[in-house]
Design goal:
Helix content: 25-40%
Largest sheet: 9 strands, antiparallel
Number of helices: 16
CATH topology of the largest domain: Glycosyltransferase
CATH class of the largest domain: Mainly Alpha
Structural class: alpha+beta
Shape: globular
Number of domains: 2
Radius of gyration: 27 Å
Length: about 725
């Protein structure tokens, strides 16, 4: 993610780290909500956000003048509902009597739907007497821009108007410096005994053994007072919509191993949570809560991870990014014609250009990944109609690679930010200290990253393949460019004394000789020679890279190595998965299956939800992996990593042009005896595949095959 964010507090669904209060997140469409374990929003990093604006910044419930005692809280496995179960502390005397602690069960249950927060507070009296319960909510809406919430200072703001009340409703209003009026409305199903612009006070009579419900809604527009029917109807719609997203594409199930299947289910649920159905199709937003927006690189890689199971994500990502392709040059936006977007944001600060991220193009790799994914999607689906639609965008992207991406004419894609407000490093490792040489010195620009050349190689090859199918006479030129990139990388990046590739070249063409995981991405693209791929694989699997929980981003002993850093020694699941897939492409299977088992073990310690990253300390028997305290959770390419690693271990490839599914030397992780792939579609054909160990080898058995489709196990 952006280096502008990497040091800021990011906490997601039910993540708790030492010294930090547990935070929970919900997301639906473009809205997301962050609250603590009680469901309270206190105006720090939490709140209800839509379009990168906080429409509810404070919402704190008290029962009997005190915060109730929490019993448990969390988010449902399908990521739709947050619930918190509490009980009362001793209540103040009412009518001469006071209720003791622990006789009331108070449940807050909440979900998001259509940019609205729906909440139900259920109060049940388990005492032996009737009880009067004073219940109150303190609230506010500051309409802060998300960058302001994350710590970016502002010299001035617009006008925050005084809230207005109307019986059961409070309406908030803010006029921004961009002359846009933003509104939100908080509504209650029961009229409060006292209602102001900051507080609602209720007095509920709870007969013994009975329950009373209070319904609450908050959205951008005013609404009728909420009630049980509105709650029930919208809750059903929210759950059905999430279920539909989870069921897109094929499914994968392990044996009768609840934990492994729970990991697969959680990963699929997280991908569904982060996927927003845009007019252009489904798009996996990068991460909840702070990256809940389309990112180019993240969307492309997440879609690639899921491509073999659910190609609809790739179609949606490609279509959306094509619609946001740059057509002009802007130093502030780091854009040139043909370049593919890095990030887009709403909100006042983006609209006023106080930050460049309203529509920002400072990712050096997204354009190459866009073209490469288009080629992978076409091979997976045979969907030439989409490729014909995107062909002008693909040609424009190739033009950027040729004319702008290679700023100094050396045949390599490079970057150097256009303005000081942009990202200083523009590959996936985009923190300020992530790219350096063997002495730890930062390079002068323009910088040519190793893995980006691999993406360019894959892009030129994909364009050549597609060009041949579309009878475009430029296909031979594009194939020649791919081979030119291959030759340049092998000549300029390879360090013979290290048996490894340099992470980058600086502006003078000198090697930045740090030994980093970026080489795993190069394997993923298929650029290296088999001999060099074996050397890189051997080193990536060594103890200096491999922690027992995954692969570090930087080799132990390198300058600036720090297992607690963002990019210089931590473990990123998506990075490990791409390296594993790269190794598998060169025939490594057993180690890939081992890495998959290691990542599974790490996920088990993170409640089966892989975070964006975790610390790169070595695995110690009987001890969990060490969390990185500001990791995004959940995050799309972390959730998708299990599916890419499964594909790599199985050696699974799909070719819609020939109607074949190949499994080359498939291997299952230790302890996993069977695997079922159900509903795998290739064009108009479909098949279920059972993979099982027979005589010590994994064998694929097709089931319920429909249409012309060949399933082959290759040795």
């Amino acid at each position: 993610m952006d280096d502008a964010y990497s040091t800021q507090l990011t906490a997601g669904e039910t993540v708790e780290t030492s010294g930090l209060e547990q935070l929970n997140a919900l997301k639906e469409g473009d809205a997301f909500l962050v609250a603590d374990g009680w469901g309270d929003m206190k105006g720090g990093a939490d709140g209800l956000f839509t379009d990168d604006t906080r429409y509810l910044s404070r919402f704190v419930m008290t029962a009997g003048l005190a915060r109730p005692s929490k019993l448990s809280s969390g988010v449902s496995q399908d990521n739709v509902f947050f619930s918190c179960h509490t009980t009362n502390r001793p209540l103040p005397p009412m009518g001469g009597r006071s209720a003791p602690a622990g006789v009331l069960h108070l449940e807050r249950r909440r979900f998001l739907w259509r940019n609205r927060m729906f909440e139900r507070v259920q109060m049940v009296n388990h005492g032996v007497e009737d009880i009067l319960l004073p219940l109150a909510f303190d609230f506010g809406a500051d309409f802060a821009d998300i960058f302001q919430v994350r710590g970016t200072p502002r010299a001035r703001r617009g006008t925050l108007h005084a809230p207005s009340t109307d019986g059961r409703r409070v309406q908030f209003r803010y006029t921004g410096l961009d002359d846009v009026e933003r509104r939100s409305c908080l509504a209650f199903s029961e009229p409060p005994a006292r209602l102001t612009g900051q507080r609602a006070e209720f007095m509920f009579s709870l007969p013994k053994g009975k329950s009373v419900d209070l319904y609450i809604e908050c959205g951008l527009d005013a609404c009728e007072p909420p009630d049980a029917d509105r709650w029930r109807l919208n809750a059903i719609q929210a759950r059905l919509a999430m279920r539909a997203k989870r069921r897109r594409g094929a499914t994968v199930r392990g044996p009768r191993s609840p934990r492994f299947n729970d990991w697969l289910d959680q990963s699929r649920a997280d991908m569904a949570l982060l996927t927003t159905d845009l007019p252009t199709g489904p798009y996996p937003y990068a991460g909840t809560p702070w990256f809940s927006t389309p990112f180019g690189r993240d969307g492309l890689i997440s879609a690639w991870q899921m491509l073999w199971l659910d190609p609809s994500l790739a179609k949606g990502v490609l279509t959306y990014l094509a619609s946001r392709q740059a057509t002009e040059t802007s130093r502030f936006q780091d854009s040139q014609p043909g370049k593919i977007m890095h990030e887009t944001r709403g909100g006042e600060m983006s609209a006023l250009h106080e930050v460049p991220f309203g529509l920002y193009y400072g990712g050096v790799d997204t354009t190459c990944l866009f073209v490469a994914l288009a080629g992978a999607y076409a091979r997976r689906t045979g969907d030439l109609d989409l490729i014909r639609t995107l062909w002008p965008n693909l040609i424009a992207a190739a033009g950027w690679m040729r004319d702008y991406g290679d700023s100094n004419g050396d045949g390599l894609i490079d970057y150097q930010r256009g303005a000081d407000t942009g990202l200083s490093n523009q590959g996936w490792k985009d923190s300020e200290d992530s790219i350096f040489d063997s002495e730890g010195r930062f390079p002068k620009g323009p910088v040519a990253l190793l893995e980006v050349q691999g993406y360019a190689f894959a892009a030129w090859k994909a364009l050549a393949d597609l060009g041949e199918r579309l009878h475009d006479g430029r296909a031979p030129e594009w194939r020649m460019r791919a081979e030119q990139v291959r030759a340049l990388v092998e000549d300029l990046f390879w360090m013979e004394d290290q048996g490894f590739y340099a992470v980058a070249l600086d502006g003078d063409g000198r090697q930045c000789g740090a030994i980093a995981s970026n080489a795993g991405h190069l394997l993923f693209t298929g650029l290296p020679s088999p001999e060099r791929a074996r050397l890189v694989t051997r080193r990536l699997l060594g103890a200096e890279f491999r922690t027992g929980w995954g692969i570090r981003t930087l080799e132990l002993g390198q300058p600036r190595f720090n297992p607690m850093s963002y990019h210089n020694g931590s473990v990123w699941p998506h990075d490990t998965a791409m390296a594993a897939a790269g190794m598998a492409a060169y025939g490594e299977r057993d180690a890939v299956a081992e890495i998959l088992a290691e990542i599974y073990a790490a996920a088990a310690h993170f409640h089966l939800r892989l975070p964006e990253l975790f610390c790169g300390f070595p695995r110690v028997a009987g001890e969990p992996p060490i969390a990185y305290p500001v990791a995004c959770l959940p995050q799309a390419w972390a959730a998708g990593s299990v599916f890419l690693m499964l594909q790599a271990a199985l050696g699974l490839s799909i070719d819609a042009w020939t109607g074949t599914i190949d499994l080359t030397d498939p291997v299952l992780p230790a302890g996993l005896q069977t695997l079922k792939i159900q509903g795998l579609r290739v064009g108009d054909a479909s098949v279920d595949i059972d993979i099982q160990h027979v005589d010590g080898r994994a064998v694929a058995v097709p089931k319920r095959k429909q249409g012309r489709l060949a399933i082959r196990t290759l040795r």
